What we know:
- The protein is of the alpha+beta class.
- It folds into two domains: about 5-110, Orthogonal Bundle (Arc Repressor Mutant, subunit A), CATH 1.10.10.10; about 115-285, GAF domain (Beta-Lactamase).
- Helices cover about 35% and strands about 20% of the residues.
- It is built from nine helices and nine strands.
- It has helices spanning about 45-55, 65-75, 80-90, 105-110, 120-135, 175-185, 185-195, 210-220, 265-285; strands at about 65, 95, 100-105, 140-145, 150-155, 170, 225-230, 235-245, 250-260.
- A six-stranded antiparallel β-sheet has the order 6-5-4-9-8-7, with helices on both faces. Strands 1-3-2 form a three-stranded antiparallel β-sheet.
- Helix 6 (about 175-185) packs across helix 8 (about 210-220).
- Residues about 1-35 have low confidence and may be disordered.
Amino acid sequence: xxxxxxxxxxxxxxxxxxxxxxxxxxxxxxxxxxGRKLSAGIKPLLVLGKIRGILDAFSLTRPALTLxxxxxxxxxxxxxxxxxxxNLVAEEFLDREGDKFRIGVNFAYWAAxxxxxxxxxxxxxPVLNALRDTTGETTSIxxxxxxxxxxxxxxxxxxxxxxxxxxxxxxxxxxGSAGKVLLAWNPAxxxxxxxxxxxxxxxxxxxxxxxxxxxxxxxxxxxYSVTSDERDEGATGIAAPIFNxxxxxxxxxxxxxxxxxxxxxxxxxWIDPLAAAAEQxxxxxxxxxxx
Length: 291
């Protein structure tokens, strides 16, 4: 039995920077990757940065973790992980299931007031802005309206040369990365689209139902779609799904721009940031992955 598999230690006082000299050089409590800067003159509580690091280790694809997995994800020393996890369980920030831990159910209770009175798109908007800043290109959220897709939110690129896009713009669902994501997780709409004539918008638009179905299947397997020149010549986009609390598709999150900037190498770099942003948006609206 390794030390990580042993029963959790008895609870003890939470450490501070002064009590734990080994943390004195660690700045994680001052500002996390997605944290906020402290006001001038306010000393950081380093333990809060450590706690956030543990909570950030959990995801929709990895909702339950062992102590060893938490240690690997955070890089914290074994003793630190044991001590903090024990206290987090005691305070109901984490729940224990055998040798694994999950975000505590009480978080749903504490989080409920956070989004009360806010529209889903207002909650997600910071994710759009952050993804735009990461990629440098326009980010958008699309939803299905009948058998077409509509842009319901966007954060526009700061480049002077940009694709024409605006909130409320309606487009064909079968062309483009966001459209493929919307159809891939909406079989009824996809079947209806493929039963009708697929309009050719450019010479690269897919108009063969069998080929479109194959691409929708690939989108579901890979969790994202990337297309070039299907709706507009010289434009490339990549998109991933956002899910609601029922595990149903809420919308498609996309990054798009001119193909000379959104090269193959570039969109490959964006797969992980896009997937992370889509998961963050899903979690912010209380969503979950479909079964």
